Amino acid sequence: MKTIKSKRDFEKVFKAGRRLSHPLLRIRVLHHDEGGTAGQVAFVAPKRLGNAPVRNRGKRVLREAARACGLPLQGYSVIMLATDQTAASKEQDVEKALSKLLAKAGLQDGR
User: Which domains are assigned to the chain?
Assistant: First the structure.
């Protein structure tokens, strides 16, 4: 899974990307106009969520949901942000929420 690593890429997605929210997670999606751009994904858990184990659990749940939904998608950069409820949620619930958000963005059919 190719991840977003550079600060420049993060800023580009945050500035120009589309924002979608759900109580279990938030995402930012940016479509790249270049045809051959490989998809990228990033997992973010801000410090306000709690200590390191809580943030790591949140990112782990987000990673599993991303794998189940087929991320990264060719030509798109997606940043997934954990919320207060992410770490305490089941992976299947976060996967359903992500699938709904991706369908809302027009990237996937809703399950």
Answer: 7-104 (3.30.230.10)
